[in-house]
Amino acid sequence: MKQWRLAGQGAAALAGGMGIGRFAYTPILPLMHSQAGLSPRLGAALATANYTGYLAGALAAVVVPRLLHSRWALRLSLLILAATLALMPLSPSLWLVLRLVAGIASALVFVIAVNAVLPRLQSHHVGWTFGGVGAGIAVSGMVLVGGSWRTAWWITAVLTVACAIPAWHLSGSSAPATVAGGTRSRHFTALLTSYTLEGIGYIIAGTFLVAAINETASGPAGTSAWIVVGLAAVPSTALWARLGRRWSRSALLMVALLVQAVGIALPAVLPSVAAALVSAALFGATFLGVANLAIALGTELRVPHAVAILTTGYSLGQIVGPLAVGPLLHNGYHQALLISAGVVALAAVVAQPLRRLA
After folding, report:
1. In 3-state terms, what secondary structure has residue 322?
2. What is the pLDDT of residues 30-42, one digit of tens each?
3. Distance between CA 196 and CA 294 in Å, rounded?
4. What separation, in Å, do the N-terminal and C-terminal C-alpha atoms of the chain show?
C-alpha cells in the first residue's frame, strides 16, 4: 500500500507538471491559431521558450542538487506553473516569458518527482508513476474539446492545482549516488546522446502532432488523437517495465525508439483519420517508455545526478527541435513530422553501444 501511495503522489506531480502544465499546449495550439491569430512561427517560438525554460530548470537541478530533495521546491514549482497557465489569456505580451517560466517549473517538478520515486519503488510501480504524464495528457485533451482558447488555459491551471494537492507531501530521495567507471561512463555518453536526439525528434511530434493531423483530417481528429496519446501513455511505462524483466532495457530502448519513429511518420505518409489514431497510439505507447527506460539505464550506470543530466540533454534537444523545423512550417507540418521520425530513428542507432550492458 505504501508503494502505491508513493507512486500515486509521483503520478499526480507528473500529471500536473508535465501532462497538463506542459503538454496541454499541444491541443490548445490549434485553438490559438484559429481564435487568437497565432502564427505558426510564433507558435514554434512559444514552444521554444518553454523548452528553454525546461533546460534552465534541469540545469538548476544539476548545479544545486539539494533542489532534488526539496519538498518546497516541488510545491512552489507546481503553484508557479498553475499561475503561468492562468495568466496566458490575460497577458498576450508576456506569452514568451510565461512559457519560459512554465518550462522551468515543469523541469523541477519532473526531476524532483522522479528522484523521489526511482530509488524507493519497484520497477512496475515506477512505470505507473510515469503513467501520470499520460493521464494528464488524456484528461486535458478530454476537457479541452471545443470552447475558447482562453477557457482552455484556465482549465489547465485548475487541473494543475488539483494535481498539486495529492502531490503536496512528496519529497525527493536523499540516496547517495556513486561515480561511474570508464566503460560505464562511455555507455552513459551513448545513452545521453541518444536521449538528446530523442528530445529533438519527439518534441517536434509532441508539439505539432495535433496541428499536423488537423491539416488533412476532418472533424475533431487532432484532439481525438491527442486523447489517444494520453490513454496509450498511461499503462505504457508499466508495460515497458514489465518487459524489462524478460529483456534488457537497452534492447527495449532501441525497439521503443524505432516504433516511435514509425508512429510519428504515419500521419505524413498516410493522411487519414485511421493513420492519425494509430500514430497517436504508437507515440503515446513509446515516448514515456523511452524516458522511463533511459532514466532507469542512467541510474543503473550509477552516474551522479543521472536524472538531472539526462533531462538536461533531453531539454537541449527540445530547444533544437522546434528551431530546426521552424523554417518549414509555412508549408505545413508534415515535413516536420518526417524529420522528427528520422531523428528518433537515429537515436535508436546511437543507442547501439548500450547493447553491451549486462
Report:
1. helix
2. 889 889 988 888 8
3. 11
4. 32
